[in-house]
Amino acid sequence: MVKVQLSLFIHRGRRWMKVDFTPSHGVGEYIKKYPGIRWSKTHCCYCIPYSKRGLHEMFTYLRKRSYYVDYSAIKSAGPTPSLRYKEKRKPKWERLEKNSKSVYREYKAFLEGQRLSPSTVEVYTNFIVEFLLFIGDKPLVKVNNMLIQRFVERLVSDKNYSISSHRQLISAIKHFGERFTLSGIEVTLLKRPKRYKRLPIVLSRQEIISLLRSTANLKHRTALALLYSAGLRISELLNLKNADIDLDRRQIRIEKGKGRKDRYVLMAESVVPLLHNYLITYNPVEYLIEGADGRAYSAGSVRNFLRKACKKAGIKKRVTPHTLRHSFATHLIENGVNMRHVQELLGHSKPETTMIYTHIAKKDLLQIRSPLDDAVLHGLGPHKNPAKLSLSGGFDG
């Protein structure tokens, strides 16, 4: 019987599966035909990149010839043997010179002292690390607006930043100018680019129902139903705990939402049976939408199953978890809910933020008939025939 042994080795920080076999007639030729296999001069063996699926496919391929396959070395190696060998990438700030590192630490402490959120501190400090690397050993007192403008132009161009990232970059530099005395800089002259006033994408009520019906997994359907029915941000959904759900009062408590504000949002009656079913089935310990390890579910996982559900429902629009929040607000306004109440439910600090939905939910404007429809309806042709004209060549769709 031909014996083939499979084992692992690390090459350039990557796991490879080594294929050893007893020399026999036709064995080598058969193994060489396996898709993606290659010969390693360094290790003197046939090999392929390792994955669980790759192991299964290789095993199946070899068993077609009734070869005896020994992969005990892979089982004993554990699930992630390469992690011990992977070199951790050093943070970019560690590449700074000694003086620049001191500036970086002072700036970070300044931002934290301003009580900015951890994510904002991380974004701003990353920008300033890029700036300190850009100026090199040049003293801060010699930095001027022209140098900063060159830095901004280069970074925005090289990184292909969006307008929002560009605005964050300018904000980071303005904070930097507040902390350090930069005699050559006029912070007020640093202008942020104007925001692109993009109208939110909104799903219709029919599309919302189709989306939920297309989501077979109970946990996934519960998550999407909560995002829409309560108008939640994805971070608010993932931070929800069992104690935040008040089934008796039909309320959901949002703790430390955006802007460090607590608020209560409504719980739809149609969601109550779904929540009961979910809680009995999954019995989450702490977080309402719980991950496999008992921690909070990840945002990436939500986006992933939402994308699949949209595809299954035949929705062609570009949909994100925030689209469900946009849809919630728009549908409330179309139902005649007071703007102030919508603002409170969404947790907006300024009414101007909520006003964006009035551009989508223009109920009266949507009822205005297009002059083309009037023209077609009244048959404005050569003989002014009042019969309805067809613009589709006889196809009424």
Q: What is the H/E order?
A: EEHEEHEHHHHHHHHEEEHHHHHHH
Overall structural class, as computed from helix and strand content, comes to alpha+beta
In CATH, the architecture of the largest domain is: Orthogonal Bundle
CATH topology of the largest domain: hpI Integrase, Chain A
**CATH class call of the largest domain:** Mainly Alpha
Q: Give me the side-by-side strand order of the main sheet.
A: 3-4-2-1-5
Main sheet summary = 5 strands, mixed
How confident overall, as mean pLDDT?
Answer: 84
How much strand content do the residues show?
5-15%
State the low-pLDDT regions, or none.
80-87
Using the CA coordinates, give the radius of gyration: 30 Å
Distance between the termini: 67 Å
* CATH homology group of the largest domain: Intergrase catalytic core
Number of domains: 4
**Shape type:** extended
Query: How many separate helices?
Result: 17
- Percent helix: 40-55%
Secondary structure tally: strands: 8
GO molecular function: DNA binding
Keywords: DNA integration, DNA recombination, DNA-binding
Protein name: Integrase
Domain Tyr recombinase: 198-370
